Amino acid sequence: MMACEQLHEIEESKTEGEAEDSSSSACAVMDPEFLMKHPLQHKWALWFFKNDRTKDWTSNLKLITSFDTVEDFWGLFNHVQPASKLPSGCDYSLFKDGIEPKWEDEQNKRGGRWLINLDKKERHSCLDDFWLETLLCLIGEAFESHSDQICGAVVNIRNKGDKLGLWTHDATKNAATLDIGKKLKERLNIPNKLPIGYQAHTDTMSKSGSTTKNRFTV
């Protein structure tokens, strides 16, 4: 199990190692540390959604790639467009490999999401930081004993305001759900006075109004 802080350290050491290597002679032997990749506990898949109204929802959802090492995560993250630069109507999703980012997936349908709503001005001030920290929480197993409840995370770019959701497997696991929400809020440094809510997917699918009632708030 790898702490999220270590992921930052590995990225920094990898960058330093690349710089040192570029200045070495061609025949120099590289330190084995820089040849090794650091495996993650789970394999993850990054998805992209673009709202093309000429296609159905499923056709608009595309799998970008999957990865299972720290180095491959950073290689991917550093080469995709930041969430804040995506056009309105687009999503990024990072889910455990084998789970599709939709309510109907067998691993998602009984679960829900911790939802963070951001207004338009926050897109350029904190959205990218929130998204990156959420991803590091996922791949770094920051939720510890509750990691089996984690399915993935989604960031939605919308004109009226962006959303970031952390999806869990079972909305009836009350204690685990609350612990996950508290940890997420702590890692994102969201002030205590600003609550975030948890919504079950079944409630979202059956809602009669424009909003879904929160089952929990932290």
Summarize the structure in words.
The chain is α+β, with helices and mostly antiparallel strands. It is 30% helix and 24% strand. The protein is built from 6 helices and 8 strands. It has an 8-stranded antiparallel beta sheet with strand order 2-1-3-5-6-4-7-8. The protein is globular and about 50 Å long. Mean pLDDT is 88; it is low at 19-28.
User: What strand line-up does the widest sheet have?
Assistant: 2-1-3-5-6-4-7-8
- Total helical segments: 6
Supply the helix-strand structural class.
alpha+beta
Q: Please write the string of helix (H) and strand (E) elements.
A: HEHEHEEHEEHEHE
Distance between the termini: 26 Å
Percent in strands: 15-25%
State the shape: globular
Low-pLDDT residue intervals, each spanning 5 or more residues: 19-28
The helical percent reads 25-40%
Average per-residue pLDDT, rounded, comes to 88
Number of strands: 8
Question: Which key phrases capture this entry?
Answer:
single chain, 218 residues, alpha+beta, eight-stranded antiparallel β-sheet
Topology:
Blueprint (H helix, E strand, L loop, with lengths): L3 H20 L15 E11 L7 H4 E9 H8 L13 E6 L15 E7 L8 H13 L10 E7 L5 E7 L5 H14 L9 E4 H6 L9 E2 L1
Antiparallel strand pairs: 1-2, 1-3, 3-5, 4-6, 4-7, 5-6, 7-8
